[in-house]
Amino acid sequence: MAFIRSERVAAFLLLAAAALGLIAANSPLGPALMGLQDAHLAVPGTPLDLSVGHWISDGLLAVFFFVAAVELKNELTVGQLNSVSKAVRPAIAAFGGVLVPALIYVAVTAGSGYENGWPIPTATDIAFALGVLAVFGKGIPSRLRIFILALAILDDIVAIVIIALFFTTDPNLPLLALAVVGVAVFGVLSRLLNTRMRVLVIAAMVAVALVTWSLVYLSGVHATIAGVALGLAMMRVPAMHLRHHLEPATNGVVLPLFAFSAALVAIPQVGLSQLAPPFWAILIALPVGKLIGIALGGWLSSFVGPRERRPVLSPLALLAAGALGGVGFTVSLLMNELAFAAQPEVADEGTLAVLLGSSVSIVVAAVLVSRLAVYHRRLRVLRSAAEQRMRG
Q1: Which residue ranges does UniProt annotate as crossing the membrane (predicted)?
Q2: Which of 327, 355, 325, 350 is nearest to 337 (CA)?
Q3: 36: Cα separation from own chain's centroid
Q4: Domain segments of the chain: what residues?
């Protein structure tokens, strides 16, 4: 299973699943698959009754958010974001990468009634961004990868906050309070994993996690937030071990299955002029807004802090980081579902725009990252030759 942990493999599976979903939806199998996606599965004896599609986006995707939260906690405590000085520069770039796409979206949809979809182009798919970097970025300095990793993690924080604040309506506070208790109990249990009661503790943690997820879902808050809260509450060391074991499942099953389900939309049989404003807003804001926002934010961040401690990122490196940030996929697709839940036709067009916009970003990022990699490989060769001459 080690190969599934590869960033390249994860990116390929995600892209292949999205393409397969889009192809299947527009084939003779499309109606049957969409019918299956809408079929409801209830848990006997509980108020839980979700469609297959929602079991995937609300249930399975919570596992992905759990893994993301564990990585976030690790970076905030012992990793690349464990101090203000380390976090401030990617934070400024991440802010630009959220603000500019949102402004572009609002500008394009102004007066259309679809302005509430502004969060859709603000998200970055960390797995895909790092996958593209791994495929095309051989020889790129580690500082760029660290910058992009920190940027994407901070982007995830913003996405989590947006989902919690803007896609929650009339939450059931008593159920939410019980969910908070469940998160606290989960955190306490994780501190008992090194005792002799390990097996019982694991069983109890699984039960508490399932109950907590159910309470969050029934409270009206998007259920993926339960995954985030549980990931942040768990002790860091055992959480990192669990993340390691869950990674093949998230890369090989959860994310591809979500991508397939989210991309299962029929291509609208309408002219370009009849497409809703969100389609054009997302299509422009993802590749263009992210590139401009991240590159501009990264450039502004170069003026922050003592001169001798400022990272040296060239304009090409910042543009490459911006293009990688425009690969939305997972979280953008989720936000699209949430924003246009009551308007399925618009949601379908939004899905196509996310896929197209992300594809444009992938192509642009591949070109820029490849050029950057070639430059650094040549620079390394020149430096090596210069050192050899000095020794001679």
Answers
A1: 52-70, 91-112, 118-137, 144-167, 173-192, 199-218, 224-242, 249-267, 279-300, 312-334, 354-374
A2: 350
A3: 26
A4: 2-167+222-391
DSSP H helices, the chain, are 7-25, 30-38, 52-54, 61-77, 84-109, 126-136, 142-166, 173-190, 198-219, 224-233, 236-249, 255-262, 277-284, 290-301, 315-325, 329-339, 344-391
* 3-class DSSP assignment, residue 41: strand
- What pLDDT, in 10s, does the model give residues 306-358? 665 655 678 999 999 999 999 888 889 999 999 998 999 999 999 999 999 99
Whole-number Å distance between alpha carbons of 332 and 153? 15
Alpha-carbon Rg for the chain in angstroms: 22
The fold of the 2-167+222-391 domain, in CATH, is Na+/H+ antiporter like fold (1.20.1530)
3-state secondary structure of 269: coil
Q: Is 210 exposed, middle or buried (0-12, 13-18, 19+ CB in 10 A)?
A: middle
Structure tokens at 316: 């090409």
- The pTM of this model reads 0.85
- Positive or negative, the CA dihedral 141, 381, 365, 26 is negative
CA-CA distance, 131 to 86, in Å (whole number)? 23
- The C-alpha atoms of residue 388 and residue 145 are separated, in whole angstroms, by 29
Angle at 390 between CA 389 and CA 392, to 5 degrees: 65
If we measure between CA atoms, which residue out of 232, 212, 102, 222 comes closest to residue 155? 102
Helix (H, G, I), strand (E, B) or coil at 42: strand
